[in-house]
Amino acid sequence: MKNLSRVYYPSLLLLLAGGCTKQPSATVFVDPALATLVPSDTVMLAGIRVQQLAKTPFWTEYVQKGRVPVYEEFRKTTGLNPGKDLWELLVASNGRDSVVLVRGKFADMGLEPKLEREGAQRFSYKGFTLVGDEKNAVLFLNPSTAAAGPVPTLYRLVDNRNNVSGLPPALDQRVRKIPSTNQAWFSAQLGSGTLPELSASNAGIFTNLARLAQSIDFATGAIDLRSQFDTKIDLEAKDGQAADRLGGAIRGLLGLGRLNTGSEQKEVLSIYDGMGVTKEDKVLHFTTAIPYSVLEKAASQVPFLRVR
User: Fold this and answer.
1) pLDDT tens string 68-84
2) pLDDT tier at 9 (50, 70, 90 boundaries)?
3) What is the spatial distance between Cα 82 and Cα 54, in angstroms, rounded to a whole number?
């Protein structure tokens, strides 16, 4: 009996310890502090998991070496170092106005970081501090939560902060299916009123593609930069026929790109080879799997791929 207890009790403790250990989420987890701030009329969400992104080669080779102008401008304007000060970014849009919700470390900066944008001023609204101008500002809700966007949008966020229940159900349902291995993601409800209307007199493959996009109800995508440029975008069409037409248009566009690429541009051709389009019922899947080395070499040949 004594020998049995020597085996039984340690085993029981291990089982209990394993059961109490919090397992990493298999899908994207949106910080509740940000989710509860998302306006109820939101039709588009996009997230950047900054802490995870900072562990990728993209961060080391591009961001830290000052090769991403948007990052450099953000750092200089806000005085924030995203790799150290920010944990997660969540962008919410209703199709007209957008707000950027931020989780990070602001306490060490005296709550509000030193914003260096010319003309920025500090002002308050219902006890909350804002830094910016009369059009756009950063709102600080607590030492670890902030929001940036048009001032009227920030005022509405403050007014409704106790009346928001979380992510809109239709978007939440899709975000919960995005694997947590991705560092950036988005989900958008499209359809009537979201995409710009097109004139029937317009022509051309890009216009036709944009017109076909009117048949998309939802678009959800994610980017994984751990080893290469891996992306997956799911386009949910109104029906299978619409998905077929959209898939044909995208394949045609990729084919046209290949035809206009010279045989000496091997890296650019490799980028096209790394793109794929498949269909499942009424959902169109667009994927990329492109090595960093290929992107780097192709950037010297294609201006819009150039970072710095």
Assistant:
1) 888 887 777 666 778 88
2) very low
3) 9
Q: What's the average model confidence in pLDDT over 217-223?
A: 97
Ordered structural domains, the chain, with CATH: 36-165 (no CATH), 190-308 (3.30.1360.40)
116 token code pair: 């260096």
- CA 163 – CA 31 distance, rounded (Å): 18
| Confidence at residue 2, expressed as pLDDT on a 0 to 100 scale | 47
Q: Whole-model pTM?
A: 0.83
Check: CB of residue 235 under 8 Å from CB of residue 281.
Answer: no
